[in-house]
Automatic annotation (TrEMBL):
Segment forming the signal sequence: none
Protein name: Ribosome hibernation promoting factor
Main localization (coarse): cytoplasm
Function: Required for dimerization of active 70S ribosomes into 100S ribosomes in stationary phase; 100S ribosomes are translationally inactive and sometimes present during exponential growth.
CDD domains cross-referenced by the UniProt entry: RaiA
Assembly: Interacts with 100S ribosomes.
Keywords: Cytoplasm, Translation regulation
Length: 189
């Protein structure tokens, strides 16, 4: 069962907009197991150039679905977002099913980890202090590199922290500028 949290920035969320978003995103429920409850966080923005940005995030127990789309027509952006989310779900299910076969039934569910990177373009002066504007805590669930890369891509992030299932070490995968992936393995000193 999907609950909705729909917000508008520079835009009033009318009943017609709310109904359209709920109707379209509700179609994703057919992919969820029975009894799965989730809240779809939908953010609608309108920019000065009249272009609309639609963001949908659906955090669930073992997976976070996230997509965003910019388009001149908000309704078209919602349609494109639902298509993106359906592709993510199908890709996730295919990989999980393959993992089950490869590991002979051992669960390989992804844990959603959301880590935001506060990036500031300005380099602080010697006089200024570094300011932490947000702190998040999360549990690291064991997974392999492929699962971590999949989760990173599904979240739309450029890095992902995870516990390696084989070595039990904390590792980081990241997307390189050339489009390939990198892995940082940590060691205790």
């Amino acid at each position: 069962m999907l609950d909705f949290n729909i917000r508008g920035e520079n835009l009033e969320v009318t009943p017609a907009i709310r109904e359209y978003v709920e109707k379209k995103v509700q179609k994703l429920e057919r992919y969820f197991t029975e009894g799965a409850n989730a809240t779809a966080h939908v953010n609608l923005k309108v920019y000065n150039d009249r272009q609309t940005k639609v963001e949908v995030t659906i955090p669930m127990k073992n997976l976070t679905l996230r997509a965003e789309e910019r388009h001149d027509d908000m309704y078209a952006a919602v349609d494109l977002i639902v298509d993106k989310l359906e592709r993510q779900i199908r890709k996730y299910k295919t990989r999980v099913n393959r993992k089950f076969r490869e590991r002979e039934g051992v669960a390989a569910f992804l844990q959603s980890v959301e880590k935001e990177m506060s990036s500031q373009e300005d380099t602080p002066n010697d006089d200024s202090e570094f300011e932490v504007v947000r702190t998040k805590q999360f549990d690291l669930k064991p997974m392999d590199q492929e699962e971590a890369i999949l989760q990173m891509n599904m979240l739309g992030h450029n890095f992902f922290i995870f516990t390696d299932a084989e070595s039990d070490g904390t590792h980081i995968v990241y997307k390189r500028k050339d489009g390939k992936y990198g892995l940082i393995e940590t060691e205790s000193i």
